[in-house]
Design goal:
Elements lengths: L25 H9 L11 H6 L22 E4 L3 E4 H9 L8 E4 L12 E4 L1 H10 L16 H9 L4 H8 L3 H8 L6
Antiparallel strand pairs: 1-2, 3-4
Helix pairs in contact: 6-7
Length: 186
């Protein structure tokens, strides 16, 4: 069974806009089949479809296909198995990804599939990199955020007892302590 892409390719023989199989249009496919020459033409596979969904440039290779809510490219393999495009790119151009590893972007651009911008790392390394570059949601942008940057500044400047501040802002005492100690929201 051949892979049926959503993207249209041009025929390798006559450059017709619609390919039906083996990178050939219906007319060229029929001629090749009649002449018993189908084996000369490659079967259209996931790699062909993958490479048609981005443009290779000097910088980031922006994914033009479907993206998830975080901006990462999504690619469907035969059998409707979804895979993230940057992971597929790393495996296609570089090699296998160990089971306990993730693929990190050095360019911090989620739709990028350029293998030169991708590297293997652990989940801990990825989370540390995200926190260092402040790409996590902080303050009121976080789903459970209660303190704005102005609130944090007031807490740091306040001489009131920590339990009083905690009760006023609706957070735990330890959170106030970490803010005053400079461990949160630097």
């Amino acid at each position: 069974m051949t892979y049926q892409p959503a993207v249209q390719f041009s025929c390798v023989e006559c450059n017709a806009p619609k390919v039906v199989a083996r990178k050939l249009c219906r007319r060229c496919y029929t001629r090749a089949r009649t002449a018993n020459r189908l084996a000369e033409y490659a079967i259209l596979g996931p790699n062909d479809v993958f490479e048609s969904r981005f443009d290779k440039t000097d910088g980031c290779w922006e994914w033009k296909g479907t993206r998830n809510q975080y901006g990462y490219g999504i690619f469907l393999l035969p059998g409707e198995k979804p895979v993230r495009a940057h992971r597929y790119s790393y495996q296609f151009y570089v090699g296998l990804i160990p089971d306990d590893k993730v693929i990190m972007h050095t360019c911090d651009n989620p739709p990028c599939v350029n293998p030169a911008h991708l590297r293997i790392g652990t989940k801990a390394e990825n989370n540390a990199d995200t926190a260092k570059k402040r790409r996590h949601n902080y303050g009121l942008q976080h789903w459970n955020g209660r303190l704005s940057d102005a609130d944090v500044a007031v807490i740091r400047a306040s001489d009131e007892p920590k339990p009083v501040l905690a009760k006023r802002y609706g957070v735990h005492y330890s959170h106030i302590w970490r803010i005053k100690a400079g461990q949160h929201r630097k």
